Amino acid sequence: MLDYHNSLRNRGIRIISISVFSIIFSLSMYSLLSSNQSLSDTAKLYNLATAVIFLIVVSLVAIGYGSYLILRSESLKPEPKKSYLGYISKILTNKTYWRIFVVSSIVYGIFFGFLSQILIYHDDVAGDTAPSLFVTLCCNYPGYVPMVTIELTELFSILVIPLNLILAISVSVLVGFNFALNMSLLRMFRNHSQSKFPIVSTFGVFSGLFIGCPTCAGSLFTALVGFSTSAVVSALAPFQSLFIAISIPILVGTPLLIIRKAMKNETCDVIGN
User: Fold this and answer.
1) What is the pLDDT of residues 165-177, one digit of tens each?
2) Is residue 219 domain-resident?
3) Computed from CA positions of residues 192, 193, 195, 201, in that sequence, does the dihedral angle turn out positive or negative?
4) How far is CA 202 from CA 10, 205, 253, in A?
């Protein structure tokens, strides 16, 4: 049983590692090749862009599957789950918390998608081109090309920028897990004075809105205070890296702190009994 657990975990780690490498390598190579392509090679570049987009989607799915294998291996361990991964597995294998994780991830992902202009609603564009698909082949930094614009209707379209898509999925998953973890913590401490929603985790959830691009923050601030979107975007553009630097560590670090506190609490309860 232990050998099967280790085999399952190592398989998940290999899948994630290969997938992450594939994404980084494909985006880097595409950016390099697209910047050197002539206009006569547009057809070849289009085929390459299609392959890169397909590889990214497959790799993201593979990362999800690899993560499942790792958590599955932890749930099969015969000894008590005392590790961080073990505790994460215990939460996500609980049906209630799994539903909270899925629903909050999807809801936040849609919200993030509109704010980061992945999902675009426009009622001021005339035309009869929908449905249609347009691929922007070049030229930009790695992660920003190839760019895909999918016009589903005359009023609604989807803008797929590889880096934004990866960030949107990553942040949504982290936010979903933060919600599920906090719900489990609230239930655990509901009869104690600690039953407060962690402030740091709340900050991590909302700071994730600003990761995709300065337009996210610009859209939110425009709705709140009525400033010009372009002015706010320009003002916030230099701080994009700061938003990323703040949000990701909080969304990753906060669950680790919460899990540590929860495991310590459970250990104290066992000793007290």
Assistant:
1) 888 888 889 888 8
2) yes
3) negative
4) 33, 5, 13
